[in-house]
Design a protein that fits this description.
The chain has 87 residues and is mainly alpha-helical. The protein is built from four helices and two strands; from the N terminus they run αβααβα.
Length: 87
């Protein structure tokens, strides 16, 4: 299982490097999601330094990569929290 996890993380790093790194000049920010330990592992990949440098501190909880879960995460990523203070 450890080998499968390593391979999955390597594939994720390859995809992020291929898709996001060339678009870094266009990105104001990146919102990360998923397992924090996996993200920490990906931070060690120097190809992704630029991606992590524009990453927001907030990390979305994405318990599994099913389409409905990912759609919900994308919706939450676009959500804005509004605080109303009574005067």
């Amino acid at each position: 299982r450890d080998g499968q996890a390593r391979e999955a993380l390597r594939a994720a790093a390859d995809d992020a490097a291929r898709v996001l790194v060339p678009r870094l000049p266009e990105l104001a920010a990146v919102l990360l999601g998923g397992d924090r330990r996996a993200l920490d592992t990906l931070r060690a990949d120097r190809r992704l330094d630029g991606v992590f440098s524009v990453a927001l501190p907030r990390v979305l909880d994405v318990p599994e990569p099913r389409r409905t879960v990912l759609d919900d995460a994308a919706e939450r990523a676009c959500a804005v929290e509004i605080l109303v203070n009574e005067v």
